[in-house]
Amino acid sequence: MSVWQKISRAFAVDDAILDEDFSLMPEELQEGRPEKGKQKQPKTQESEQSSKPKQEPKQDLKQEPEHEHEDDRPSASTLSHAQPRRRSPVKPKKIGHRSTEADDPSAEPSEIAAKSSRPEPESEPEPKPDAPQKVRREKRKQQAKNYEVDPEQHNLSFKPTYPEQVSISLHENRDTIIQLFQIPRNADFVIREFTVSTETPIQAFAVFMEGMSDKTIINDNVLQPLMLLASLPHGHAQARADLIKNSLLPGNQLQILEKWEAVKNNILTGSTAVFVEGMDCALIVETKGWEHRTVSDTKTETVVRGPHDAFTENLRTNTGLVRARLRTEKLITEITQVGELAATDIAIMYVEGIVSQKLVTEVKRRIKAIKVDFLQDSGTLEQFIEDPPFSMIPRMLATERPDRVAVSLTEGYVAVFVGQSPYVLILPTMLWSLLHTAEDAYVRYPFGTLLRLIRFSAFLVALLLPALYIAVTNYHPEMIPTDLMLTIASSREKVPFPVVMEVLLMEVAIELIREAGIRIPNVIGPTIGIVGALILGQAAVQAGVVSPLLVIVVSVTALAAFTMPNYNLSFAVRTLRFVMILLSGVWGFYGITLGMLVLLMDWATMKSFGIPMLTNVSPYKQSSADVILRGRVFKQEIRPGALYPGLMKRQVRITRPWDPATHDSREAVEQYEQENRQQDTEARNTKGKRGGNPT
Amino acid sequence: MIKTGHLGRREMLALTVVASVADVSLFYPQQLVMRGASAGWMIPVFSMLVAFAVWALVAPVLVREEKQDLITLCEKSLGSFATRAICVVIALYMIADLSTFTRTFTEAVVTTVLPRSPISFIAVPFFLVCMYYAKKGIEGISRVSLVLWSWLAIGMLALLILNWNWMRPEQAMPLWGNGIGPLLSGAGLFTSVFLNILVIALFSSRMRKGSDVRAIGYWSIGIIGVTYLLVTLVFLMCFSPEAAMRSPFPLYQLGRLIYIGRFIQRLEAAFVFIWVVMAVIKVSMAVMIATYLFATVFRMPVYRPLVAAVAIIVYDLSFYPRSFVETISYNNKYIVTWGWAVTMGIPLVVTLAVRVRKRREVRGDEELDPQENAS
Fold first, then answer.
1. B 205-224 residues with CB below 8 A of A?
2. Cβ proximity of A402 and A307 under 8 Å
3. Which side of chain A, N or C, has fewer Cβ within a 10 Å radius?
4. CA-to-CA distance for B11 and B149, rounded, in angstroms?
5. Do residues B129 and A591 touch, judged by C-beta distance below 8 A?
6. What is the nearest CA distance from A111 to chain B, expressed in angstroms?
């Protein structure tokens, strides 16, 4: 989208639409609102869409290539139609804008762009004798003639140069392998040829990747049985393959594959492919065994009380860590891949029956839409699928703690694991969640609440303290008690810079120290502390560059920023702090207030997978007492209503029936039990009213 | 892209309350004291009763005609031309009200917080923020209102309570001030601050439950009335009526007065936050409504291109009065005198027209039925 298009879009959104983004709200609630536009204009965008002759089937008819090897090159439009489109798109509409094909309400902006650059099919009917339209079509035909592949729209998949099916000839298969992996130029791939020791020896070979496969498994479970123990019949290829699979290869996961694409992908993930003469298939033995860090302590989300294990750089280990905690058959892990040059595994995890299916569909849709040659990390994926890409506050929670993922899944969130990333994305997220830690739940509720209050205060301090210092000293000194004001004035007497400059100098110095502290080799790490303390704490004050009070202000601000439990949020706070400093330097409290109001509006309207970032507070949604303060754990009976969970109830109302404070009579006990029984059989939430049925 | 377009009841309540009490930080309490002297605090009470009465007539129609708002109801009952005329009148009223409001607000900021600053230096960032809010739409403004209104309430209460050591109840005597006549006439005029009735009527179709509209109306009228009452009463009890008449910014003066110990004193700058928040929410909402109505009048499918234009017009008009005093004079002469006709009168007229039309329809049906039975 060009700059002009963006500006045009900013000024041309239908005012009848208060919110045009994806929303988790059930559709029957969304459609319930009559629109003035509908009443006034006989044909609104929706009615246009429904009354239009079905154009969609054209694309639906475009069948997927029968074989994976075919160069399908789906355009952006086909990609976006991969999932059933249930949402009613609203296009930005300019005043006086003429209706064109690009106005098709079912088209995304990217689709419109793709359509405009795509050649017209020859079978298209002649345009009506309408002069302006004719001119436009001529122009488009001209564009179609000069069609050039747009690198941004073009599919990145590489055209395969290998055959589709595994051959019956061992020799051909070996040649294909050599050509495919460019052996011996590519030294990572190993071909081990051997003879299966039967009465009539049969030739075979195994292919695996050095460094990705476990050699012990290959020796003990692949080569040894086939070379020393085998006794194969001369029969049908399938029978031979079945025999090998059932009797000779004791690997715990074994597949018979016939297509080269699948064989290639398995070899690349560390499995061993075994090819046998006379078999038109490959036996894939699971021998993955690359080196990776073992499960170790958390690095960025440390707690005193609670589990200490963290995710590692192994996808399966990570999913296993969550599954070990959340042992239910309802926990679903769907695996997909992203990356045209090199595929990265993506695991989407959720609890069936609790999660909103709309959310899962949207997550999968966004991930599927990614066309990139290589996806590096969850941090990269996050940027591909987040809602408004220019906002500073993170739109999803990256965590390295399996326990946090497990509890989030039970609340109706979706977790996304990315390849070798030790950070798992929990989505959607709200601003409040970014200030929570796992430990809040493990300590008793008064202390959990206290921790939360400290953290929320720290958030404000980290964002605003230097700005407030500037505002008070520059514009509103009357707010400070006289003695303190005199102290500040005397300490600033020798400082040659204005307060704003002084604060900016110190803030930049702090940022330098922080960045250097991360990048510096561990061996000389302590140097940073000494340099920082000397330069900032002592030398700067003694030299009269900054006032001692400012050193305290900047230090407290830095400490407050360190308490941010989310690294991405910490970045946002640090960046916004500079904006606030500038605003307060120019307008004092007035500027800070205006800046905060802009931020609030940004946060209030920003969404994470259909949920406004300030949800639970504004817009209000039903939830247990776990948003800002940490409530009592035995009172947290419902899941967050904003997620529209399949089942709102999390626990029965009376979780401490033995407590004398809970009951004092037999009647009360019976009543509680009856209530609990009712809640146990409570119908699943399908209406989504205020986030679900109250319990 | 899905349309979720609805307003939660809490959001709507917060929006209407914050937008309507924004004037309390400016010269309205002073004007109340000038009309009612020591009984100035009673004027909001009477106005509140009038507003309750009006709402009692308006609300049932809005509840019954679920998913309808003032514009659609007007179109049904009074026709297209009248609808356009009413939209233009409301929009012009909003612009005029905003002009005086923004001028007094910027003057207040210049006088109290940023002295010696050029007025445009204050007004330009203010209008930029308001334009941003108006562009984000009613949903965003209402959400911000909901986030902030508890903070505003705490701030206002703190402001009132922290001045308890200066309060002299005898300064609110004589009880009837200048007499009951000025109180009643002031109450009639003062109903224009109950902007909430108009806002709810305009956006009632955006509520998910029609029955919520009634409760929101009553609650908001009550909260607005009590807020004006309390601020004016505390203002009167802290200053004498004579001093209060000379003080155009009561919240600032009250903040300035706070002195509890050595550390809780001179907090007027901290209350800038309250002023600015209320002003931004009121102005952005009014700009949004004005542009929305203009877009409706001219059958424009969008309102956002008009936001900048309307904001610039308001900015220009706000500089039309030569001074702060002249601004207040304009406000009293036009806005206060005729504001009630827009905020109360239009919703009342439209809903009455709907009732009459309904009655006619029912009567027509009844007349038709005997004929059908006879045939």
1. 205-206, 208
2. yes
3. N
4. 10
5. no
6. 14
Cβ of A98 under 8 Å from any chain B Cβ?
Answer: no
Q: Closest to B138 (Cβ–Cβ): which among A18, A32, A588? A: A18
* E-only strand ranges, B195-295: 259-260, 264-265
Residue with tokens 């009539």: A200
Among the partner residues A18, A25, A95, nearest to B300 by beta-carbon distance? A95
**Cβ–Cβ of A15/B72 closer than 8 Å?**
no
Within its chain, how far is the Cα of A222 from the centroid? 39
| pLDDT tens column, B206-255 | 887 778 899 999 999 999 999 999 999 998 888 888 888 888 788 888 88
Q: B141 to chain A, minimum CA–CA distance in Å?
A: 7
Low-confidence ranges of chain A (pLDDT < 70): 1-2, 5-22, 27-159, 198-199, 229-239, 251, 661-669, 671-672, 678-695
Contacts A–B by Cβ distance under 8 A: 177
Asked whether the predicted pLDDT for residue B262 surpasses 80, the reply is no
Residues of A in contact with B260 (CB under 8 A): none
Partner residue facing B136 (CB), from A11, A594, A601: A601
**3-state DSSP call for residue A342?**
strand
Fold of B9-368: Amino acid/polyamine transporter I (1.20.1740)
Domain ranges of chain B: 9-368
pLDDT at B370: 62
Bridge pairing between strands A282-285 and A397-399: unpaired
Between the CA of residue A228 and those of A121, A321, A566, what are the distances in Å?
Answer: 62, 38, 56
Best CA proximity match to B279, nearest among B268, B291, B271? B271
Residue A42 with chain B: CB contacts under 8 Å: none
Instruction: State whether A598 and B132 contact (CB < 8 Å).
Output: yes
Query: What interface predicted TM-score (ipTM) does this complex get?
Result: 0.92
In single-letter form, the type of residue at position A608 comes to S
pLDDT of res. A139? 53
Cβ within 8 Å, pair B3-A90: yes
Q: Report residue A201 as tokens.
A: 């020896």
In single-letter form, the type of residue at position A356 comes to S
Which residue in the set A23, A95, A605 is minimally distant from B301, CB to CB?
A95
The string of pLDDT tens digits covering residues A169-204 is 999 999 999 988 888 888 888 999 988 876 677 889
Nearest-Cα distance to chain A for B187, in Å, is 33
* SS3 assignment, position A345: strand
Pair of tokens at residue A694: 């109250």
DSSP A337: E
* Residue B292 Cα, gap to closest chain A Cα (Å): 8
- Please report the DSSP string for A611-647 in residue order: EETTTBTTTB----S-SSS---GGG--B--GGG--S-
Nearest CA in chain A to B72: A36
Query: Strand, helix or coil at A254?
Result: strand
Tokens 């005193």 found at: A304
